[in-house]
Amino acid sequence: MDDRMFRNAMGKFATGVTVITSKVGDDIHGMTANAFMSVSLNPKLITVSIDNRANMLDQIKQSNQFGVNILSESQQDISMHFAGQTKEDREINFGFIQEIPVIKDSLVSIVCDVDTSYVVGDHTLFIGKVIDIASTEGEPLTFYCGKYGINPVVS
């Protein structure tokens, strides 16, 4: 199978949208990602998958910490900004939890210390030990078949 067939098939899995954040010195970096999942309740662990060519890879390796921000349906513009899908410069006003940058008004912000990492194919999986969470009510931003906000009909 070719890469496009694989990518199209994986796009049939509806996901939420997150922005991964990290800070090294005064430099805050963020990237949009949907490769995120809960791993363990005890201890509390999550994982994110980062392309080995992404700038975020070095940020997380240097800081040994990261945040996962689950976006609300009103934050598509933020997702597009961190995915490099907009041309305009935008100032992001970050919040902080345990000194880790987070996206304000996200449905959930989870901050982690890196527990371990694994290079798998062309990505690195970072397992994060959750150190704190902030959560609010609202509807999630979704992604399906390459489009935002498309919720599959369940019959």
From TrEMBL:
One of its GO terms (biological process) is pyrimidine nucleobase catabolic process. It comes from the Bacteria. Keywords: Oxidoreductase. Residues 10-150 form the Flavin reductase like domain. SMART domains: Flavin_Reduct (SM00903). Transmembrane segments: none annotated. Coiled coil: none annotated. GO terms for molecular function: FMN binding; riboflavin reductase (NADPH) activity. Gene3D superfamilies: Electron Transport, Fmn-binding Protein, Chain A. InterPro entries: Flavin_Rdtase-like_dom (IPR002563), NADH-dep_flavin_reductase (IPR050268), Split_barrel_FMN-bd (IPR012349). PANTHER family: FLAVIN REDUCTASE (PTHR30466), FMN REDUCTASE (NADH) RUTF (PTHR30466:SF1). This is Flavin reductase (DIM6/NTAB) family NADH-FMN oxidoreductase RutF. The lineage of its organism: Bacteria, Bacillati, Bacillota, Bacilli, Bacillales.
